[in-house]
Design goal:
The complex is a heterodimer of chains A (160) and B (739). Chain A is mainly β. Chain A contains four helices and eleven strands, in the order H-E-E-E-E-E-H-E-E-E-E-E-E-H-H. In chain A, the strands form two sheets. In chain A, strands 8-1-2-11-10-9 form a six-stranded mixed β-sheet. In chain A, strands 3-6-7-5-4 form a five-stranded mixed β-sheet, with no helix packed on it. In chain A, strand 4 and strand 5 form a beta hairpin. Chain A starts with 8 loop residues before the first helix and ends with a helix. Chain B has 739 residues and is an alpha+beta fold. In chain B, the strands form four sheets. A six-stranded mixed β-sheet of chain B has the order 10-14-15-13-12-11. In chain B, strands 2-4-5-7-6 form a five-stranded mixed β-sheet. The radius of gyration of chain B is 33 Å and the shape is globular. Classes of the chains: A mainly beta (160), B alpha+beta (739). Chains A and B meet through strand 4 and strand 5 of A and helix 14, strand 17 and strand 18 of B.
Chain lengths: 160, 739
């Protein structure tokens, strides 16, 4: 949590420029994750519930013989699931050296985000945790929340 | 070196005196050799240990009666063991060189009269024996001393008069190709090391380690090839060794012409090995003879340290060409062994598992197709067969023989025997049986613990006690591995005093484990020694009996999804049988459904599954629900409560109860239905959430979905926790359900 302290914040956010995969959670909000974390995007697969797993972990899927846990970031962020659609999919990311899937209601595109368009995450007061947000990229039409995917994943995976 | 251990020299000498038919003497020596190999300094030195392993294999062959000509095989084994003995001498390769060489030359000489001892007797007793194989082996036996001495005497015979090459002395014979293939792989490694060392020597002349490496490479190749019956390889390696011993002794420097000569002998040997890899015994050629002449007397051919630097002497190229495989032949087989990263291996096994599932989906769909267009069914069936074979093959990749584990046990038996003053004979059977690599590592500890017990608790305390019981003074501990079906059974038996059920019962009552032994079956009484805190030994010894006992072993075996059995007869001994699955990767399980969820319950834990009659069910207030099963009250565990499943069958009488053993006490798990038996490949769920109580892992089911494998002990633990709380929270589960 304290990794970012001691670094000039402005410089840090500028360095965040690069390629991002953007996707939609719920019906509106658009998020981006650094493309280097993305392994592949697959359609929804049957998920096996795992008893005793953290509540935002939906369960596990079989990804070509490998068992991969699936996290629902909407639960974590308190976003209502979007209308059921055929566009929902699983983004397989590598975090902490492991493959993990996250559910997205819709994947949009891979875009280049310039460092000078990225703003630090706003402070909502001590109650709102923003550690998993790298910054906010704004264009004339929309704002995208850039995620630190390793921090956004469940608590227990970070402890490992 | 442990002074109590016989040295390889000694073993070689004794081996030479054993007649090929004396299997008991051979077995005894084999076991001693196995002990010697398993411990320092031998286990730390690659080459001698590798050779000794080969001797072990050939003795095994002899004992099993599989050797084609026993006398000859024995003579070869002797020779090989002597080579190992020479190699194993500390400081041999790098130490004072003349001393080492004479030692190498001296010891086999002393032994010469011994090996053919049985042969002349054979001749005089049966002079008219016409069995061609016997005659052949007699010839060999008479010649073998020469052959055995020659390779060891380069230094002693004098540098100026090289020893007669051994090759001619050995009659032509068909090498053992199976062993030869292994040898080629190792020999290539030795040669590669030697080559690197030679190049290093050119820049750093006189580095004793490098010279040692090169010398050892040639020496080992010489010894092993002689054992294999590859006389041409032996001859070339021997000649090269002659040159190298001069470098080693500091007589000549490794540079210029000498270095080139040594390097070209490596190239020639590589060419010869390539022939061996193709199962062709290389023949001696004039070009090879010319090379050997140069190797033994380079100066006579105008080769020296400086001058003709880098220029290959004429004749050597020819020899290289002659040794190289024939043009047009298939590519050279470099190695018959490859080391593979285990994660790649696991990935391969994963992929093959996926292929099997994908294939079964395809074959199900084609089977449902009405019109069998263009023989599609036949093609799918064909692919099916290939994929099944591929799966079997991929599973066998992780299998390794139990030999090393058995050798560890051999060491422990010997040590405990020594410490406790008992004379113990240790017999090994089936150490070539294969098991999953991961299991082999884990099973070693329980086995060693049991072996200690067998010597320290199982056998009578001393020779007098054994005499009194009318047994031979030497106790016997036997370790055997038997493959039966999908199981490996490891049996550890001793011929000691046996376990007295009355004593066990008395002790168990003292310890409060049972109230009375009345009405207990003998087997059940014996099984009490697996209870925690049970030790029958009256005093605590240095070796065993510190309160950790067979319960630890039992838990270890159960962790491997195995079970342990004991049988004992008073006065005759005790046998422990460990029944283990071949691999942990595959679980034999029962696929059950609970609501919309499916789980795999390992078959090894299941006692029985039944649909209960209402009168079998009872509820005891404050203690929960129970199933009455043959007079026993078995607690019922509602899996759907524990795992928070809402669409499951609530009424036990309408569902099924699977009675499982949680270590010792049974638990009845309520499920909706049993879907069938299935073998599944166990996979970790990942470090994502650490340990999950009740879940042992995941598996890909036949339809490609993930099924969870239940950890029966964990489930029972959860159930107990739950019943001890008046109100327990079910696991939080997600309301988000896909598909």
């Amino acid at each position: 949590m304290s990794q970012q302290s001691g670094i000039d914040p402005k410089a840090t956010w500028r360095e965040l420029g690069g390629k991002y995969l953007t996707f939609v959670l719920g019906s509106e909000e658009e998020y981006g994750i650094p493309i280097r974390h993305v392994q592949e995007i697959i359609g929804l697969l049957p998920i096996t519930t795992v008893p005793g797993a953290p509540s935002d972990v939906l369960g596990v899927i079989n990804l070509r013989g490998k068992i991969v846990p699936i996290t629902d970031l909407r639960q974590k962020f308190g976003i209502a699931a979007g209308p059921e659609s055929s566009q929902a999919c699983i983004i397989v990311v590598s975090a902490h050296g492991m493959s993990t899937g996250i559910i997205a209601d819709r994947v949009r595109e891979v875009i280049e985000i310039k460092g000078d368009t990225i703003e630090p995450p706003p402070s909502f007061g001590a109650d709102v945790e923003v550690a998993h947000i790298l910054g906010i990229a704004t264009t004339s039409t929309r704002a995208r929340i850039l995620l630190d995917i390793e921090r956004a994943l469940p608590e227990s995976s970070r402890a490992a | 070196m442990d002074p109590l251990l016989p040295t390889l020299d000694e073993l070689a000498r004794r081996l030479a005196q054993i007649s090929p038919g004396d299997t008991s003497a051979l077995t005894a020596l084999r076991n001693e050799l196995a002990c010697a190999v398993a411990q320092p300094p031998l286990c730390n030195s690659m080459a001698p240990a590798a050779i000794a392993e080969r001797v072990l294999a050939s003795i095994d062959k002899l004992v099993a009666g599989r050797a084609r000509s026993p006398a000859q095989a024995l003579a070869r084994a002797c020779k090989l063991l002597r080579t190992a003995a020479v190699d194993a001498r500390p400081g041999d390769m790098t130490g004072p060189l003349v001393g080492a060489s004479t030692a190498a030359a001296g010891s086999p000489r002393r032994e010469i009269p011994a090996p053919p001892a049985s042969a002349p007797r054979l001749t005089s007793e049966r002079p008219t024996q016409a069995d061609p194989e016997n005659v052949f082996s007699l010839e060999y036996m008479e010649l073998s001393p020469l052959a055995a001495v020659a390779p060891e005497t380069p230094a002693a015979a004098g540098r100026d008069q090289p020893a007669p090459p051994p090759a001619e002395a050995v009659p032509e014979e068909e090498p053992d190709w199976e062993l030869a293939e292994q040898f080629v792989g190792e020999a290539h490694q030795y040669l590669a090391d030697a080559e690197a060392a030679l190049l290093h020597l050119e820049s750093t002349p006189g580095d004793p380690n490098a010279i040692g490496t090169i010398f050892r490479a040639f020496h080992t190749i010489k010894g092993v090839s002689a054992f294999m019956g590859l006389s041409t390889v032996t001859a070339v390696a021997h000649s090269a060794e002659t040159l190298l011993s001069r470098m080693r002794d500091g007589e000549i420097r490794c540079s210029g012409g000498y270095a080139s000569l040594a390097l070209s002998s490596i190239d020639v040997l590589k060419g010869l090995l390539a022939q061996v890899a193709k199962r062709v015994a290389p023949k001696m050629t004039p070009a090879l003879d010319a090379l050997r002449a140069r190797l033994t007397e380079p100066e006579a051919h105008g080769i020296m340290a400086d001058g003709v630097v880098g220029l290959l002497p004429s004749g050597v190229e020819e020899a290289e060409a002659a040794a190289a495989p024939q043009p047009g032949a298939e590519p050279v087989v470099q190695d018959t062994w490859i080391r593979v990263r285990t994660d790649r291996l696991d990935r391969l096994i994963d992929m093959v598992g996926e292929l099997v599932i994908a294939q079964s989906i395809v074959s199900q769909e084609t089977a449902a197709m009405v019109d069998a267009r263009s023989g599609l069914h036949r093609k799918v069936t064909q692919a099916d067969k290939i994929i099944r074979a591929l799966q079997d093959l991929s599973m066998s990749l992780r299998m390794v023989p139990l030999r090393q584990t058995f050798q560890k046990v051999a060491r422990v038996v010997r040590d405990v025997g020594q410490k406790s003053g008992r004379s113990v004979q240790f017999l090994i059977e089936g150490d070539t049986t294969e098991m999953d690599r991961n299991m082999v590592d884990v099973i070693a500890d329980p086995l060693i613990h049991m072996a200690r017990n067998a010597v320290d608790h199982g056998l009578e305390p001393n020779a007098d006690a054994r005499k009194l019981a009318g047994k031979s003074t030497q106790g016997t501990v036997r370790l055997a591995a038997i493959r039966s079906g999908g199981e490996v059974v490891l049996q550890l038996s001793d011929d000691g005093a046996g376990i007295d059920p009355a004593r066990i019962a008395k002790k168990a009552i003292e310890r409060g484990l049972i109230e009375t032994a009345a009405g207990m079956a003998e087997a059940d009484i014996l099984a009490l020694i697996f209870e925690p805190g049970f030790s029958t030994r009256d005093e605590v010894t240095d070796v065993s009996g510190r309160g950790v006992g067979m319960d630890v072993v039992k838990r270890g075996v159960e962790a491997l999804k195995g079970r342990i059995e004991i049988s004992s007869k008073i006065g005759e001994g005790t046998t422990f049988s460990l029944h283990l699955p071949l691999t942990l990767a595959i679980t034999d399980g029962m696929l059950v459904r609970v609501g919309s969820q499916r789980y795999v319950i390992p078959s090894v834990a299941i006692r029985v599954s039944l649909r209960p009659e209402p009168k079998q069910l009872s509820t005891i207030s404050e203690r929960g629900e129970f199933l009455q099963l043959r007079g026993e009250l078995v607690p019922i565990c509602r899996l759907h409560h524990l795992f928070g499943i809402y669409d499951a069958q609530e009424d036990p009488a309408a569902g099924l109860l699977v009675v499982v053993n949680d270590g010792s006490k049974p638990v009845a798990i309520l499920v909706d239905e049993v879907l069938g038996q299935q073998q599944v490949v166990t996979k970790a769920l990942g470090a994502f959430w650490g340990e999950l109580p009740g879940v042992a892992g995941g598996a890909i089911l036949g339809d490609g979905r993930v099924g969870l494998i239940l950890d029966v002990i964990g489930v029972a633990g959860l159930a107990r926790q739950r019943s001890s709380h008046t109100r327990m929270r079910a696991y939080p589960t997600s309301s988000f359900e896909l598909s």
